[in-house]
Records
---
Amino acid sequence: MAIKRQRAFPHLLTNGTRGIHRRLTLDMQSGASQSIEVDWSDDRGATFNAAQTVALGASGNGWPTLWRLGMARDRVYRLTWTDPGNTALMGVFLDLEPVRS
């Protein structure tokens, strides 16, 4: 039986200024799961956008990456995946550049 897993992360703030979210990379070990859904909220977690599906590949792409994620002052990322076996989310790395305007 498949187990649905979901992980939301703390708010990413840029001291009241906007930030460019260039790249989000996941360090992940997957079992049978072929994809993971990534969505985010720009209103402190009240609502989330439509999820983007990231392929993990048949052999388990350990570093799936999303590019050009837009700008935000306060963003919350959330990951969702379903897998019948063991999985491990070992880290998430974000390339975030504050905008000085």
---
Amino acid sequence: MGAVYKVEDKRSKNFWAAMKLEDDLYEGGVLKLEVYILQKLKGVKHTVRLYDSGRTSRYCFMVMSLLDKDLLTLKYLAGRPFSEATTLRLAISTLYAIK
């Protein structure tokens, strides 16, 4: 299983990123594949930036751009389902990103 943490660069204050960790022994792990894909998408618009990746004796990790809230959190904060118009805008943005 894995987890995502908000981390700060100790050398340059006020620089925040997301660190994703995954147990290296976890058989269903996909972190290595995610790192590979992000390396291939380097510089592509609408994708997170991969700052670093590696492994320790127990964990695989990657450090990437820190994004805002995820869609599930935004839906929860709205207190109701997304409107049809919002859903369509999200779908269109997603399609442009993967185009």
---
Amino acid sequence: MECPILAKFRLIKKSTSRKQIILYTVNMHQSLNELLTHSCTKFSEQIAFTNMGHNLSYRDLEHKSRIFAAFLQQQLQCKPGDRLAIMLPNTLQYPIAMFGALRAGLIVVNVNPLYTSHELQQQLQDSGATTIVVLANFANTVAQILTKTKIKNIIITELGDLLAFPKSIIINNIVKYIKKLVPKISIKQYYKFNAVLKNQDNYTELQITKDNLAFLQYTGGTTGIAKGAMLTHGNILANIEQITHALKNIIVVGNEIIITALPLYHIFSLTINCLSFVQLGAKNILITNPKDLNSFVKVLVKNKFTAITGVNTLFNALLKHENFKKIDFSAMHLAIGGGMALQKETMDQWQQQTHCPLLEGYGLTECSPVICINPLNATRGIGVGKPVMNTKIRLQDGELLVQGPQVMQSYWHNQEQTDLVIDSDGWLHTGDIATIDANGFVHIVDRKKDLIIVSGFNVYPSEIEQLLL
């Protein structure tokens, strides 16, 4: 099932008396690699990511991502510009693989682990990825289409690989032998993730600039079949700065704790939860399976957090959970709902229970993704907000057009589709029908083209037609 391109989200804000720390600008950085090194140096002893009770410090993240990068460079002979696919849920392996790939000058291709073999084949063929990092649970999906792609190198990891002993062994055995979620791997030659992290080759530092591609982020765009939005280091850096600028009066550098239930392979969670909060020196609590609501709520009860992201169905499920009232929301001042619009009933109940008003924003995968954010003191019912800094918008025949440093370069190897969405003057045509009120607030009215939304995911007529042929 395809992830939605419309990264609409809500921001839930609560006043705080804490001392505010001025954000440093990301303009000083020429790449996401520099941003990572800066954060890992400044916040070295703080926790960067935690998952299933195991912590990864910023120092560990720096060290392990360099080892991973060295393995790609020396053992796999990957070259700058090669594509590496990551087919992982929210685990500690994800940031290590992602940052390691960027350090090696590779272009990251995020892949939904739940893709069918057909969907996976299409994305790997289009991207030309030569290396893939995949959770063992989904390795056989890769095996089914391996000969139809350019994949030469496969790195397989198990769910508990980075957990402490003996928990790592226990978790892997439960997943494999009791829950039987890991079928026998039919791939003959592959590398184990843990073995990769024992690599002793030297990492070769590269001069990566804002013009270098960082991600091929696949999206249905406005026309259907998935296309790779070419996002540079500069695109993502610009959006990080735009996001942190919009939230500068509420975010405290080095003190944030964010709950990440939205998958990191989605642009919304990738840019906001992962990259923006790494820049802020935050602690990121990764939720591998938010559908396991009992375990998810236990994590929320155990941790006093400052920010959370999710989708309407998840927020609604949390509100209805019997232990919801045991969660301490006293430190929370930011909540983000992405992927599908939040229903008024859910918004009202969430505000009533957590004492936080909701603010709405708007974005697209092609824009890294954030375009608009409501001011933190905005009242309800004023649309999706105003454009973030350095972003221009206008209407053409009712359609919202966007210009800004966060706008993608083009679609990967698809100039025809690129020309349909980026005109000769550099305006991105969003495909959304909108209005702009007298105060400059944007209101999304409808989609320019028909689509069907199923459980928060976009299903396009062209995909249905192809399956019927």
